Structures are given as structure tokens and as C-alpha cells.
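Priority: medium. Attachment 1 of 2:
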């Protein structure tokens, strides 16, 4: 029981740290940042199982489908296409009209002419940290406001060999002359993953670095908080966040510190066939 409680507290602290990092990255990016497909996934309220909001994000548009319930508990769904507007207090804000759709029943021929749309209200989706979101919407005059988070279906597996690349900038260095350096490196990269843990070995032009830590899944994002050590003698705390798996490989952000500087940047890998 003590170990379970400790693991739970550690996971909670890692999650809070990762959320803070994502928020810092977002705020630092400014309102002009193109968020690509970052909000794609299933969003829900943890304490309210049974309903949710799948999102398909193609910047600057998000398509949301709501699977919710009427007052008589019967299932009900509506949908909306939201468009990004001016950011508010560091949050990306998307808004649009909400529609109820009617059409031919399943199991028979589909007649597009039978499809009809009825505007029932509006919806607003806003996020200042890319991991949680505030959703508000109206349906026939009824206002609903929810706090959403990414729903995790299962842990993604990033294990395998990659042709890797890393880019980072140095900040808050002990010696000011080291601030603002941009470092780019590439080479073979290997990821080893087990339940609750992740290890990355990146071989660059001048050194080999190993990153290892606790693994945490947040929706479609993989995250790991731990330490790094390199063959050139540098080492320190290191966090990998927002790892996204694709057919071709993966991308991720990272933040850390060695004996001299803070390092903040991105890494990516192209799948290498076994």
C-alpha cells in the first residue's frame, strides 16, 4: 500500500510538472504559434464517465463531436466546427456554431437528401496548457461548462531504432557567455520502453547521451521524467514531453539541466527497419 501511494504521488507530481512545461512552451511560443494537430484526441471529465468529446484538429480548425445524453437519459449527439480566434490570456480559443444532425437510419441505403441540420447553440474550446481545456456550450438555451482533460486509452509503445535528431537552446547558464547557444545533432537513436519506464540512447557526432525515467501517458502524448547522462560528462534532470507516435517515427519536446545550463528543445526520430 505504501509503495502504491508513493507511485501515485510520483505520477501526480510528474503530470503536474509536464503540464507546467507544456504551458511554458505554449506561452513562450506566442499567439502566432501554429498548433498543427495537437488537440486531436478524446477529451472527457475524469469524474464523469460515459460521455466525451472526440476532437479532430487541423489548425486553425477543430471538429468536435459530443456524445452526451438528454434529460430522459437517452443518447444524444451534436457536432461543431470551431475556428481559432484571438488568443485570450495565453490560451488558444476556438469557437463556432453547434448543430444537431438528422439523417437516414443505419442498416439501409443512405440518402444524402435526407440529411438535415439544426443549429442548437454555440461552443467554445479553450486551452492554455495543451493538456487540459475549458469547454462551454449551449443547446436550446441551456448553458453547460466543463473542464476537460485528455483521455488515455492505452500506453503507446515507442520502442525501436530510429534515425534521430536533436535541437536545443541553452539558457540560464552559470557562465552568461554560454547562454543562447543553439545545438543541433543527429545520429542513431534507440528507445527501450517497459511498463512505467522509458530509456532513450542517442548517439551524436561528439557524444552519446542516455535519458531514463518514469513513463506517463496523457492521452495520445507520451511523457517521461528522469535524468540524462552523456559521455562528455554532462548530466542532470531531464523531462521528455508531448511524445507523439506516427507511422514514420516520433516527435517530442524536452527540457533539462546539466552542470552549466538549462536546455530546452525538441527531438525526433525516423523509424529504422529492423
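Attachment 2 of 2:
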Amino acid at each position: 500500500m505504501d509503495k502504491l501511494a508513493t507511485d501515485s504521488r510520483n505520477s501526480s507530481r510528474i503530470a503536474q510538472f509536464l503540464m507546467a512545461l507544456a504551458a511554458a512552451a505554449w506561452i513562450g511560443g506566442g499567439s502566432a504559434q501554429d498548433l498543427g494537430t495537437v488537440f486531436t484526441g478524446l477529451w472527457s471529465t475524469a469524474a464523469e464517465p460515459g460521455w466525451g468529446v472526440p476532437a479532430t484538429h487541423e489548425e486553425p480548425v477543430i471538429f468536435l463531436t459530443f456524445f452526451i445524453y438528454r434529460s430522459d437519459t437517452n443518447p444524444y449527439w451534436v457536432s461543431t466546427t470551431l475556428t481559432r480566434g484571438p488568443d485570450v490570456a495565453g490560451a488558444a480559443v476556438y469557437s463556432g456554431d453547434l448543430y444537431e444532425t438528422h439523417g437516414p437510419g443505419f442498416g439501409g441505403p443512405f440518402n444524402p437528401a435526407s440529411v438535415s441540420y439544426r443549429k442548437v447553440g454555440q461552443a467554445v474550446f479553450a486551452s492554455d496548457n495543451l493538456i487540459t481545456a475549458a469547454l462551454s456550450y449551449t443547446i436550446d438555451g441551456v448553458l453547460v461548462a466543463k473542464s476537460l482533460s485528455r483521455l488515455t486509452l492505452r500506453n503507446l509503445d515507442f520502442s525501436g531504432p530510429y534515425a534521430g535528431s536533436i535541437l536545443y537552446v541553452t539558457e540560464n547558464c552559470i557562465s552568461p557567455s554560454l547562454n543562447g547557444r543553439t545545438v543541433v545533432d543527429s545520429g542513431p537513436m534507440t528507445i527501450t520502453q517497459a511498463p512505467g519506464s522509458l530509456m532513450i540512447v542517442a548517439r551524436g557526432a561528439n557524444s552519446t547521451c542516455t535519458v531514463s525515467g518514469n513513463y506517463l501517458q496523457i492521452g495520445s502524448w507520451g511523457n517521461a521524467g528522469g535524468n540524462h547522462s552523456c559521455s562528455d560528462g554532462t548530466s542532470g534532470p531531464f523531462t521528455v514531453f508531448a511524445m507523439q507516435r506516427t507511422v514514420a517515427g516520433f516527435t517530442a519536446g524536452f527540457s533539462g539541466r546539466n552542470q552549466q545550463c538549462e536546455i530546452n528543445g525538441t527531438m525526433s526520430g525516423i523509424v529504422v527497419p529492423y
